[in-house]
Structure formats: C-alpha cells, structure tokens
C-alpha cells in the first residue's frame, strides 16, 4: 500500500508535470472506482490544473475550481505517458481511470483482485469523509511529542494498530508502522496505555526520523520505480527470516489485521516471540 513518503514524492512529480495543464479527456474504465456519483468524471474536461498535493495517503489534484481526490488503496498506483507518447514502464496493472491532459496521460491502475482505487470530485478535499477524519500528519513541521502522547496515552489498543489508524496519525500503513516500531524498539502488540514516558518519546522520535528520512530518500525517484524503492529500503518489513541489521537476530513474521507484519524479538520484545 502506498504510504506518505511515496505519495509525497508522487504528488511532487505530478505537480511538476501537470500544473498549468488542461484536461482534454477522461475515461472511467471501472465505474466502481468513482465515489461521487452525482458529479460525473466527464465534467472535468476543460479544467485547468492548479497543483497536486498529498493529504495523508491521498492525492489531491486541485483544479481552478474544485478538486480531484484520489485514494490509491492497497494495490493502486499511476502510469504516466508524456505528450510525445513516451511512456514510463509502469507495469501491466489494468487502468481503472484515465485522465488525458494536453501535457500527457495519467492512468490510475490497480493490481489487486478487488477495486481499491477511489476517485472523488469535490469542492473541498475535507468533504471526502475519510479525509475529514484524518489525524495529525507526522510529516507536518508542527507535528509534536504532545500529539503522540494524546494519541497513545491511555489507549487500550495495540500500538501497531494505533499507528495505522488514520484518525490518530495520517499516512502510516503496514510497512512504515513496522519500521517505526523497530526503530523505537517497541513491541507491535503492546497497548498504548502501557508505554512509559520514555517509550513514548522514542516512538515520537522514530516516527519523525523514519518518515522524514524515507520522504527525503524517495524525492525525485521516477514514478515507475518508487514502489520498488520503498521495498528495497525496508529494514524489517518484508524481511521475515532474515537477520536484523541492528542486532543480528532473526526477524519474525506476525499475522496482523488480515496481513503480515514483521518485527525483531531481540530488539522489540525482549527475546519473546509473539503471535
């Protein structure tokens, strides 16, 4: 699933490519991707792009009037073809929505077995229900230790679940929650209300450092290689059975929320293998 560092890089790249361009055509290949039935995609034809921004894990294409909000979901991504017809290698995932600009073509793709990409046409991004409920963004310059304390302290909920809860922290998913917890040396299963002041301080520092470093590292990477760059940079996520680079212990898999997470028992759970 695309998370905030990759979506930030994607937004910056698209902002450079399409700001000032005009939409010439639209094609809704998969009707289930369209979430605002009362505003047809065809109404975008002729609109000029004012900019592209990230909101949590969402893309916001700002128009002269209104916004196109895109959720890439679990398996979504984009393919870009420039005005000369030169296409980057964006893989073979089917396109669900196609936006044609005078400067190129943007395809929203989905590689999953079910439709996870979503598109909203709206006057304000926060009118999209999920965006209206987003919590603070750890990549925001004003993100603070107090925000972490308020979101975590007193919560009888597993820490990994809190990190992925978009109402608590915007933009973090399965992969970066694993990376953050490993950096902070915290168990994914410990409840928020059991963390000490020092542990919450480590959590805040890890959120800031892991996401900040990832965002800087992804900046400028071509769209078609961004997802692989994320995979290649993971320290523990997706590394089950491999050696932990911090301590040399074995990284373990953990079934969590319908997917698989990874952690290092030596670094995070005082040697105890949790399930």
Uncertain segments of ≥5 residues (pLDDT<50)? none
Q: What's the helix-strand series?
A: HEEEEEEEEHHHHHHEEH
> CATH homologous superfamily name of the largest domain?
MutM-like, N-terminal
Distance between the termini: 23 Å
Overall spatial form: elongated
From the alpha-carbon coordinates, what is the Rg to the nearest angstrom?
20 Å
Cofactor: Zn(2+)
Family: Belongs to the FPG family.
Domain Formamidopyrimidine-DNA glycosylase catalytic: 2-102
Pfam families: Fapy_DNA_glyco (PF01149), H2TH (PF06831), zf-FPG_IleRS (PF06827)
Question: Could you please describe the fold and organization of this structure?
Answer:
- Residues 235-269 form the FPG-type domain.
- Its cofactor is Zn(2+).
- InterPro entries: FPG_cat, FPG_N, H2TH_FPG, Ribosomal_uS13-like_H2TH, Znf_DNA_glyclase/AP_lyase, Znf_FPG/IleRS.
- Residues 2-102 form the Formamidopyrimidine-DNA glycosylase catalytic domain.
- By secondary structure, the chain is an alpha+beta fold.
- It folds into two domains: 4-132, MutM-like, N-terminal (N-terminal domain of MutM-like DNA repair proteins), CATH 3.20.190; 145-268, Helicase, Ruva Protein, domain 3 (Orthogonal Bundle).
- It contains eight helices and ten strands.
- The strands form three sheets. A four-stranded antiparallel sheet has the order 1-6-7-5, with no helix packed on it. Strands 2-3-4-8 form a four-stranded antiparallel sheet, covered by helices on one side. Strands 9-10 form a two-stranded antiparallel ribbon.
- α1 runs parallel beside α6 (197-218).
- The longest helix is centred in the last third of the chain and has 22 residues, at 197-218.
- The chain starts with a helix and ends in a 7-residue tail after the last helix.
- The mean pLDDT is 95.
